[in-house]
Amino acid sequence: MPEIRSGAEYKAKGWSLGNLTVEQISVGLLDTNCYILMDEDVTEGYIIDPGGQAGRIVQHAESLKLKCLGILCTHGHFDHIGAVGKVAELLEAPVMISKNDAGYLDGSMKRIGIKMSSFIARNPSSIDRVGGGDEVAFGDYRARVLDTPGHTPGSISFLCENNLFCGDLIFKGSVGRTDLKGSSTEDLLESIRREVLSLPDDYRIWPGHGPATTVGKERRSNPYLENL
Ligand SMILES: [Zn+2]
Known about the structure:
Blueprint lengths: L3 E3 H6 L7 E8 L4 E8 L4 E5 L5 H10 L3 E6 L5 H4 L2 H8 L3 E4 L3 H5 L20 E4 L4 E4 L2 E7 L8 E5 L2 E5 L2 E2 L2 E2 L9 H12 L7 E4 L5 E2 H7 L7
Parallel strand pairs: 4-5, 5-6, 6-7, 11-14
Antiparallel strand pairs: 1-2, 2-3, 3-4, 8-9, 9-10, 10-11, 12-13, 14-15
Helix pairs in contact: 2-4
Zinc ion binds next to loops.
């Protein structure tokens, strides 16, 4: 069973998170990173990309006493939204996704690859469309929505203080796939150039798969960014 890596572990590595709680829960068949982002003081926050294993996510959220204000979706691929419906229902939370990827959730957009209906436990009842410049607030914090298309047309990222939750935009040493229907390599690289490389080196990147990294580390060593 893949692990839950708590923000405390990253704090131990010297990452100051202030009063932010960041919990990284690896879920589903593709080890997608689901995140719980919370203000420790008031225990308000959001769940990002509940891709599978709703029960496990909700259980962990409850152990943190999370008052879940919403579910944030970086994009609409099944491995990131697989448990959205169920988690939204159990926590009575609204779901936020971009306009261009909302079709993955409400069933109007054809899902990639094999028949995915078995992975989508339930379609959420209320979906809010969000886009670049929108903000969600929780406790003393805010997370800003960034438009970061490329991996999917409606991929978005969430920037909270110096933490970037970017779905499948960029990974430690790699970038998101662009060989899928609706993907664009050009758009993906432009999104990284505009929204990631413009950030200071010490900003943290919390990707949709694999370990967290920093903007500086990727700027220096990610081979896909060499010509950006
Ligand atoms: Zn994806």
